[in-house]
Design a protein that fits this description.
The structure is a homodimer of 411-residue chains.
Chain A: E1 4-10, H1 18-32, E2 35-41, H2 44-49, E3 53-55, H3 63-71, H4 91-103, E4 108-113, H5 115-130, E5 136-141, H6 157-175, E6 182-188, H7 195-198, E7 213-215, H8 223-234, E8 239-245, E9 264-265, E10 271-272, H9 276-288, E11 291-296, H10 300-303, H11 310-328, E12 334-343, E13 346-354, H12 379-385, E14 397-398, E15 401-402
Parallel strand pairs in A: 1-2, 1-4, 4-5, 5-12, 6-8, 6-11, 7-8
Antiparallel strand pairs in A: 2-3, 9-10, 12-13, 14-15
Helix pairs in contact in A: 1-3, 1-11
Chain lengths: 411, 411
Amino acid sequence: MKKRNCFIGQSGGPTVAINASLAGIITKCHETNEYDHIYGMINGIKGLLEDNYFDLVDMFKTQHDIDLLMQSPAMYLGSCRYKLPDYQSDPQTYMTLFSIFDKLNITDFFYIGGNDSMDTVAKLSHYAKIMKSDIHFIGIPKTIDNDLKGTDHTPGFGSAAKYVATSMLEIAYDSSIYKLNSITIVEIMGRNAGWLTAASALARSAHSDAPDLIYLPEVPFIRENFYRDIEEVFKTKKNIIVAVSEGIKDEDGEYIDSKSKYAKRDVFGNILHSGTGKALETMAYERFKCKVRSVELNVLQRSAGHLASKVDLDEAYMIGQYAVETAMKGDSAKMIIVKRISDDPYQIECLTMDVNAIANQERCVPIDWINEKHNYINDKLYDYLYPLIQGEVDITYKNGIPNYISIQHLK
Amino acid sequence: MKKRNCFIGQSGGPTVAINASLAGIITKCHETNEYDHIYGMINGIKGLLEDNYFDLVDMFKTQHDIDLLMQSPAMYLGSCRYKLPDYQSDPQTYMTLFSIFDKLNITDFFYIGGNDSMDTVAKLSHYAKIMKSDIHFIGIPKTIDNDLKGTDHTPGFGSAAKYVATSMLEIAYDSSIYKLNSITIVEIMGRNAGWLTAASALARSAHSDAPDLIYLPEVPFIRENFYRDIEEVFKTKKNIIVAVSEGIKDEDGEYIDSKSKYAKRDVFGNILHSGTGKALETMAYERFKCKVRSVELNVLQRSAGHLASKVDLDEAYMIGQYAVETAMKGDSAKMIIVKRISDDPYQIECLTMDVNAIANQERCVPIDWINEKHNYINDKLYDYLYPLIQGEVDITYKNGIPNYISIQHLK
């Protein structure tokens, strides 16, 4: 008789690799032949609180099914943005969850997500310790922002970086066709961490030197320097491409778009930016009176499954598998991390780290990986980023569009 | 001794297929073994007026080089937006051009472009007739807008349509992860013709029914109907996806975004829209007070070479080849057109048409291909669109990004 039962959940914003981690967990559970039930929470911990889950144990048993799951973007299981309350202030929520765990004889709990999801893992494992529960709570990282502490990088980031670099290259081709001065501002996701904006530098090739300028949120954005930088580039070329993080701030720490009429806040109180590119477009036009436009890469940078990085998807799968091994070894309150052994040849290994040391923290681009003028990245950052976007995933298409699966029919 | 010399130019906005037509012309010129020089204008007719051209005759002689050219988006030869004056008002411009033609013993002139480019071909061939020049002026169609008369569809459209359908699918996956009401507005290019916005319907699959609503510029956009349509969809699902053309107009024929602060005009006096998605976002939020966002697909829909339609690229190449055959037969003042023989199996043939019947005209979506409620397309339009996005192009990557070529180094 099989003795293990687990829950798997996905939480936070979408990435292209999050279903690859799910695939890694499911296949490892199957391989061990020890899992009686593999429950998927629908819409994360919030869905679980509403008794919304189903059993995956008879699904994804062929390589074809696994491949389809791996190539599908966003969350197969759905997501939530839900901050688990402290157990002191709301013990009922914890009792509800643990009564479900008891009823189903849950031994392992796998939660795939970013900062806020690791907070959930930390809180649940803390409560379990107090209650002397021996359920293993394991966090599996994912975020296109690459801002989790402890790990060399996060699954999902490499694919987003590949999308950003490719789009940057294509925008450069688009903007270079006319013989006239032009400035194109490309706004890239990244609230406080500039990793993804930095990845635009990977667009440079023998045939295109875009982006010409890169502005990250880790250093202040100074309008006069921006003008000076553009004047400098105009001395040698006509079509300027600027990569800018949505989250750049001025010398007083104010977001450049904080006065934008589109400014909104998410449930955690974080400002949702969508006006930085437009703000720089206006600034540049007022000064240079040439053709200026802005492009917002928007949600596609985290959801374009057709342009995944093979390195990223393979690692996400491996991390999912490692999470099951970790739980079976008896560990809890851990997040799986990636340690880089070398850049060239690129080599990594999986390890674990105390989830409490990761939750609610943020890892930004080191200042000494940004150039002195604060308008580009340097070689250290380039060498770090380069391996993460390598390799293409040969996804399957159906009727001319990618063949992605979902659980729409189960809802 | 070889007796023919030609000019090739590219003009107007970028597409993913325009270099495939260039490849078709070059390879056919090579194959015939009759061309002494194959001149490429740099930046179209405007560049030619500045004596800016180079000889392509020794280039693109291997399949590898042709493949790289075919997979590279935008214009290898650069482009211009230049309206050729009438010869009566500005004979000097024509004398300048024809003196270059005389000097180089030009026999054939190939111009790849949209409406405005066909106007250039029409004017030059008209002048040639008056001057009793026997140069053959041939127009090769391209535009993502698919709005040229006479041809079943235009090269470049199929790839843009594939990008739009794929992006729509990925945006639908992105927006479906949370269990809350949301409206996502996706703004798609198309000034007066809704073909590309209509192509978003190709995103529908067994796993996703987005887009839920499609608004085309061929029918008036009525705000109250928009609200009614959304209310109707909310009855059965939570996450609504709306595809809207940038050029929708109200009952009085006013562009919905005409009062947008971003409204600009191009050199032909056409309004450059960029606020329609935002305008609908604001409308929807004011009425429904739920999560609303807008995504502008922007320039990537015309430049994302990595997601080309194989049908589109193959046809663009074939049309380029046919243009050379047409010139060699002694024709002039013609545009190459595509005639559809059947939808299923999909079959076409190349023909020619008098360029004067095409220039400065516009072909919109027939009203009877739009549903009665004016919020979706019907089966006739679906059947028309479906074959054009079929097939993927196995492009090559280098260092993790697509391997595109350019003439940056020649400039």
